[in-house]
């Protein structure tokens, strides 16, 4: 990587630095270790690195915070890690236009806080928002809790600045709230997991901060009744900001005593004012064993927040991420339970009920031990179930390396081939995050 | 076109049929007349036609209702028009999932009515909704009045069935509300103006019907004050369903007597309940010469509805369609006035103020007469103005033939070249709507 010296950009081959930038949060391990990590500070730095990479046929993995759950950010033998965390300026917040202009390394929550100072907010809120970067959110099209009402990352991205594989810079989309000039290149980069270009700037839509939310926690005797309650909300024209479903295995992991209260919990927040909140409480009461709506939202959300830490106490969590049509939610949860029993692996399921996105968390043996085959087989059956129910193998985390085989099954050979040809248009030499996503 | 007989699909070369399917609503005239019009009734019909077209190198223009305002649907010499209006079934409305599955020829308003029967609605509402088809809306990424709050067509499209140039069929996207498997081919087809493939089916998101709307009409002494009022709404965290701005030239066209009341009119609808409506009325009152909020919404919207018919009485309307950052709205309206004066052509400007999308309507001489050069020059200056203000040359109508030169200026040569390469991936022989969009 001596050519990096000519770019003038800071870089490192320190083994500790390499080790820090080798993995993402999926636990997936690539062969070998990256060759170097480079720390650009400006867009020109990124251009210089990509130009050199193209000339030297060096493979590049763009990296934000490395919180991906799919292996998308993993960097193995000979790869150059392009660490974008140093491009972290919020360049502009324009309340009158409802937009912000940022560099890719900005931490998601920091942008939201900067917007809040103007009575606005950046709506997409992946649970990783205090760690993850906007660039990583865009490259994975991250979802979040409030996306049931306010949309996923795609819905917040108006325009992008991208450095292409050869080092050229393009702008896509626009700075306006609407626009239809030409093919939607912006949409193509969103969710492309670093395989089409490096995002070096983004113009994002901000939304007015809504009224403070009202929070309701409702327990049900079974997951069918809980799922029916979440559909009933939509039928009552209530659009919850979030609607989180916790199944019995999850409740057991948090506190076995909760079994007395119910075997499925639905936590709902609304921000349409007191009338909507009262209406939601009324709808959720149907079939419920307990409805709590007074008190502190933090208190009511506690179970949701405790879920992952509690499950982690049981063993190594594999966080899966399927989505099904909303009407199949209960069936999906039930059948994941059957899969868990058949393979004798604990699976705790959390779901963003409003949009049919489930996170079955497979407890795959003890921490640090190899993943048992039964866990892998259970995961495969969960993916097959998602497709059988008319759903998708990834609702928000993306494909990375872990779901490549399933992507082909989901989209079919023709669409897959088109995606490969699009990849070849943007990255003919295949240097950008090779082996990922498609 | 004798090969069409082998497809078994009904087709016609009747001169009257050809004349009916030759133009869209832009007034732009291609050279010559299409060779034939074919009327598929099934997806298999579309596949057979495209297969034959590929083999015979026949150029295809997909056609919904032909309401495009850009020349996108115009079909000249030797072209085969693929009329999709016969594929007009609403296949499924699934309230629990919040989705509908439709064929492309469904009239936009018919889908909205079918959804309303379930307490839902199809949000995108182009002013052409009683005529336009869902396929045409998707192929142009149509906007509408309520998209300020509820999004454009892109935001409502979850998945597509598409017949490719060679007759193969693919599915893109999904039937779930969320999903990130692979590159966003759905987004690529949305807005592609029939140049990448033929849309033969769509899975669309439906939303709960909101509360009945409250309507407020506010007159202002000048466009700056009116635009400031619309920004003040956002700053007060109010998200209007629609916010339509009419400038002085438009008010004059409707009724010169309105000058006494004000020289800019802002019509706002909210659907967040009575408190939000009262708050909106209060915000809009600032600087207003008259605020009407009681009474019938139809009455208050009358001026907006009368605008186009009134302008048409002045002569042939060229409906332009730029978008600028919301904070530049007043400046854009003002400077369009200066352009009108300089070229001595009347220009009436209507704007979707909530998202900075302006429709300057140039009165281009008498109906049926050739378009005067001054009108063309004025249009070019309006496009240049849009780019100067950080905007786009098309907010919602698309590129078609009329804005091709401007597209290249807006997106730059590199992005333009990538778009051409994407076109070549999908349509290597260039038979799909050649010469349009990119
Ligand atoms: C505790 C936890 C909770 C999570 N919760 C959610 C959740 O609620 N919803 C959700 O969707 N995800 C969630 N995730 C997954 C992950 O946080 C998101 O995918 C996040 O968007 C990744 O951001 P990052 O900055 O860490 O990206 P990274 O992991 O660094 O990168 C992710 C991918 O994007 C590419 N990339 C990064 N930056 C750029 C760039 N500037 N240009 C081009 N490509 C780039 C990388 O190459 C890689 O392919 C969670 C993860 C954790 C660990
Ligand atoms: C009075 C009036 C008001 C309007 N108001 C608005 C408005 O508020 N907002 C707005 O955005 N537009 C508006 N328009 C423009 C126009 O109505 C929209 O662009 C509409 O979406 C076009 O639909 P259509 O079915 O008529 O499409 P067509 O004109 O038939 O086709 C438009 C384009 O889509 C392609 N196409 C059509 N069907 C398919 C298919 N199934 N597969 C692939 N390609 C296809 C065509 O080849 C063409 O390129 C208005 C037009 C009129 C005349």
Automatic annotation (TrEMBL), chains A, B:
Domain of life from the UniProt record: Bacteria
Cofactor entry: FAD
Gene Ontology molecular functions: FAD binding; oxidoreductase activity
Keywords for this protein: FAD, Flavoprotein, Oxidoreductase
Start and end residues of each FAD-binding PCMH-type domain: 30-209
PROSITE patterns, A to Z: FAD_PCMH
Pfam families on file: FAD-oxidase_C, FAD_binding_4
InterPro entries: FAD-bd_oxidored_4_C, FAD-bd_PCMH, FAD-bd_PCMH-like_sf, FAD-bd_PCMH_sub2, FAD-linked_Oxase-like_C, FAD-linked_OxidoTrans_Type4, Oxid_FAD_bind_N, Vanillyl_alc_oxidase_C-sub2
Positions of transmembrane segments: none
Protein name per the record: FAD-linked oxidase
Source organism: Actinoplanes awajinensis subsp. mycoplanecinus
């Amino acid at each position: 990587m001596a050519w990096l010296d000519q770019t003038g950009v800071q870089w490192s081959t320190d083994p500790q630095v390499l080790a820090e930038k080798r993995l993402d949060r999926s636990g997936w391990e690539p062969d070998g270790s990256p060759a170097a990590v480079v720390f650009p500070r400006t867009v020109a730095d990124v251009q210089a690195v990509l130009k050199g990479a193209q000339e030297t046929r060096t493979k590049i993995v763009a990296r934000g915070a490395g919180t991906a759950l799919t292996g998308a950010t993993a960097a193995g033998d000979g790869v150059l890690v392009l660490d974008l965390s140093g491009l972290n300026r919020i360049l502009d917040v324009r309340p009158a236009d409802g937009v912000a202009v940022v560099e890719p390394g900005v931490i998601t929550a920091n942008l939201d806080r900067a917007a809040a100072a103007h009575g606005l907010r950046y709506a997409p809120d992946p649970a990783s928002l205090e760690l993850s970067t906007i660039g990583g959110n865009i490259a994975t099209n991250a979802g979040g809790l409030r996306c049931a009402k306010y949309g996923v990352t795609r819905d917040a991205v108006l325009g992008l600045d991208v450095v292409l594989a050869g080092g050229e810079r393009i702008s896509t989309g626009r700075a306006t709230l609407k626009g239809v000039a030409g093919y939607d290149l912006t949409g193509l980069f969103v969710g492309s997991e670093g395989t089409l270009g490096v995002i070096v700037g983004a113009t994002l839509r901000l939304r007015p901060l809504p009224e403070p939310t009202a929070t309701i926690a409702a327990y049900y005797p079974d997951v069918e009744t809980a799922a029916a309650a979440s559909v009933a909300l939509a039928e009552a024209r209530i659009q919850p900001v979030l609607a989180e479903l916790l199944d019995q295995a999850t409740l057991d992991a948090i506190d076995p005593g909760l079994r007395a209260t119910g075997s499925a919990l639905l936590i709902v927040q609304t921000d349409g004012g007191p009338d909507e909140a009262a209406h939601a409480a009324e709808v959720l009461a149907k079939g419920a064993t307990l409805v709590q709506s007074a008190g502190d939202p933090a208190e009511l959300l506690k179970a949701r927040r405790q879920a992952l830490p509690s499950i982690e106490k049981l063993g190594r969590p594999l966080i899966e991420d399927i989505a099904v049509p909303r009407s199949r939610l209960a069936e999906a949860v039930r059948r994941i339970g059957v899969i868990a029993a058949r393979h004798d692996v604990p699976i705790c399921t959390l779901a963003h009920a409003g949009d049919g996105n489930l996170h079955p968390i497979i407890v795959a043996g003890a921490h640090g031990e190899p993943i048992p085959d039964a866990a892998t087989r259970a995961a495969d059956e969960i993916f097959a179930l998602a497709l059988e129910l008319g759903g998708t193998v990834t609702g928000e985390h993306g494909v990375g390396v872990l779901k490549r085989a399933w992507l082909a099954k989901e989209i079919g050979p023709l669409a897959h081939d088109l995606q490969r040809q699009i990849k070849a248009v943007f990255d003919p030499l295949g240097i950008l995050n090779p082996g990922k996503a498609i």
